[in-house]
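Example record for the data management plan.
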Amino acid sequence: MRKFSRIIFLVCVVSLLAIPLGAQGGFPDGTELSILMWSHFVPRHDTWFDGYASGWGAANGVDVTVDHVNIVELIPNLTAEIDAGSGHSLIEMSLSPAAFIEGLHPLNDLNEEAIELYGEPVGTCRANSYLPTTDTWYGYGHGYVPDPGDYNIELWTAVGFPDGPSTWDELLEGGAAIREQFGVVMGIGMSPEIDSEFAARAIMWSYGASVQDENENVVLNSPETVAAIEYMVSLYEGAMTDEVFAWNAASNNQGLIAGELSYILNSISAYRSLQKIDADAAANIGFVAPLAGPSAALAASHVWQIWVIPEHVEGAELEAAKQFIRDHTANYSDATYNTELYTFPCWTPTVPELAGWLAEDPFGSVPANKLEVLVEAANRGVWLGYPGVANPAIGQVYAENIISNMFARVAQGEMTAEESVAQATERVEEIFDFWRERGLVGGGDT
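Corresponding structural encoding:
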């Protein structure tokens, strides 16, 4: 208790120091800081952040500019700027940028300072910012997003699940009954996009399967992976339609808002949008924790907020970028609040109000404690590459959509589950060998 009190005291002190009351950084005249970040799924955040960044710049004598881009443009932008050796000072990524480690400043100093102030970061944040094989913090995770299941309360109540499904078997049972009785389908994709990739992994983990083990050895080709795919085929045949093979990242959000889907696996951003469109419809949306399977109940965090500083940034610009990260972390209560509780802090003590907000949602949930389930979703949230780290090989497997395609081939009748897993494993092993030869992936045991 005393240790926690000291941490909260330090948080308060640092927060006071971060408030833009006057120049604090001692940066030379003409220092500039350019920030690139994704356009947040909760628009309120970007309005707050732009104002915060402007105020921070005025207080610290730094000319700050902020550019927002679609989330899918982050990797191309980072790639181009590293190749060019010029560009933004500070970039916020949404997935682990481990593949870019050779073009980024190590941020061991910032992470070690934060650990001293706040304790260890949440596990899903550490795994997406730290590479054990080189003992390098290549990023600074400041936030992450829990991924609950979102369900239509009226429909699920009508088929005997008023609290929504709690297992993958119940999802199949209830989802099939809803489609048969009401003609409403389920929203879990099998296309090359983020939500489909995450859903496929959640099912795999629940069956005891994974791409790699905790030592970064490829273990994809297993009976557990085959069983996970066979379950997904049953779910598709019983509760979905062919539309899931052509979905994009917005499809399940749009379907939930339109009342056309009984269940999706996603964050609360669609729900927040629906609250502003139709409060009664939003009240009919419930949330459940990650579903349990034969082996586990896990889901990938929906996205992460990870600061990186490209290697071309130097001198006062580099020091300004680091100070901005420190002060932004110290003001994280404001950051979380202005995402309407979408983003959770990587450094838990920085938002001591979070439990209270979830118990009584300041943004009008009905009932007021509807979002308390996000705590369980956060506790069961893992990362791409679990149970190993989010290494560069895992990033490339994701970028090539190997896992979602592995599932889709079987659902579309192109291959058996065993054939599709074998094909995917061959490519995954090639990717791991490439990165292992560069010393950026561990394992290699046979």
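Summary line stored alongside the record: Residues 1-23 have pLDDT under 50 and may be disordered.
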